[in-house]
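hey so i finally got around to running both of the ones u sent me last week. sorry it took forever, my laptop kept dying halfway thru and i had to restart like 3 times lol. anyway pasting them below in the order u listed, first the sequence line then the structure token line for each. didnt double check formatting much so if smth looks off just lmk and ill redo it

first one:
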Amino acid sequence: MISRRIFSTGTLFSVLSATVGLPVHADTFPDRPIKLVVPFTAGGITDNLARVAGQYASKVLNQPIVVDNRPGAGGGLGAMTVAQATPDGYTVLLGTQGTQATNLALYKSLRYKDGDFRAVQGLMAIPNVLVVNASKPYKNLAELVAYAKKNPEALTYSSPGVGTGSHLAAELFQTVAGIKLRHVSYRGSAPSITDLIAGNIDLSFDYPATTVPHIKSGKLRAIAMTGLERVPVLPEVPTLSELGYAKATAESWLGVFAPRETPDAVMQKLQLAFAQSIEDKGVQEKFVEFGGVPLRKSGKAFEAFVRDEVVRWEQVVKKSGATLD
């Protein structure tokens, strides 16, 4: 009786040990809920997009997609969680320009790298809006640049914080336009825009979601969009590219990422589900609400896009001198 117990326990241990290294069964994926890690708090643009896109993708995959908010370290905590997760497709990241590109240059102590992920599918790109206080004399980009060149560092620009997309878009524009502005950093867009409206700040590169109400009310004047194309929420505002500053194009973007060793077959299923999600009417309504446009980049094309962004923003961060640790 004793020997049979010893044999059974040993056999069970052998079976369990053997299953640890088994490959992911891509043909049955997914057969349980998928966790979509959002590296920021609930209620923001990233969280909202994760929920609407995830809801649609879950219908394609026929499994629930559960949003897991993991804020901290500028999104780094959530990104690290996915980088270290089992590469089976059941834990993926709603990554951003910040978590996948600019953080790599801003944080020296970051515990993950670009090579720790596979890019699944782009979801949305959000441009900044270059806005000025409506009482300021410069009514278009040419007048603004001319004033800044005649008065170096006389103009101030606000941002929601050092290293944010708003801050780095302004840094990039200064380099391309050959002007020098003074940066005033705030803790969030709300106080930044409040001071801009009050006339304490001259201009800002902020997001449509925070600026459009004030543009519509006449308190702020929209000068240009930093994206590749005009956006439906501000169709009358030209892009920097249209105005002769194509190299100053900047967008904050969001997409889905998986751990590096995730199998191709699993990646293909995830990619298909999220690619279909951005064509859904309800998801596209969110794009309009956020002032964004679909980011239709998948697989290798999305990987290449991210690599280019890593290099591009590393140069901008270095030139700005920005650091977050």
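and the second one:
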Amino acid sequence: MQANPITDAEFAQFQRFIFDAAGISMADAKKALVTGRLGKRLAAHGLDTFGAYFKLLSGGQHPEEVQIAVDLLTTNETYFFREIKHFEFMRTQVLAARSRTQPYRVWSAASSSGEEAYSMAMVLADCMQTTPWEILGTDISTRVIEGARRALYSMERGRHIPPDYLRRFCRKGGGQYEGHLLVDGMLRNKVMFRHLNLNTPLPQLGQFDMVFLRNVMIYFNNETKREVVARVISTIKPGGYFCIGHSESLNDISSAVQMVAPSIYQKPL
């Protein structure tokens, strides 16, 4: 069944849907993205209009379909060691903390398919001696969380992994996995992934020494940015660090942390 083209009114319904679900402000230019990503779901349910699919999502009878739609409409593009300066900064902080006895805790708050969290894990595994460490990765998309737990990636996604880390912490695929890498089991066991919506009150996560919330705020309006950032910063220990994307800013968003370097902030002691 060929679906009818999405109308302006139907597109506005999905703009409201993803804003309510994830706090994402979807631009008018994203109409083709909505059509492309949700078209197969209309076919799966035998529907010929996007309005009918929206009605299905809104009816309360298909919560699993709501999650599928959220997964499809959230963007999840990343790679290992993206924005390398944050990992270089992390290395200096981890080295300074490795005489501690308490676990060094890091949160990848929008972990997507896991490359960011595993990049963190490589740094911690390399630098920590006897100090225990923990990493939490969270994302609104259950689909990418499942992929993160598998930890299997194309070699192209790993092109920025330092050669020594690639040798020590990754396994090269063969046979049907030719052209892929698998993150080492020791690291996989040290990184916990869970589904989490930053646009709702947070569960009890504990306190973190460092949090990455990168390249996510660009999808939020200012009010949503303030709410999300306030929630995330509340989980950072005094003296801990908060990293955002290089193209993002906390101007008029939060004064609860102080800039120590471009896109890197510290929570006062």
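quick thing i noticed on the 2nd:
The chain has two domains: 8-73, 84-266.
anyway thats it, ttyl
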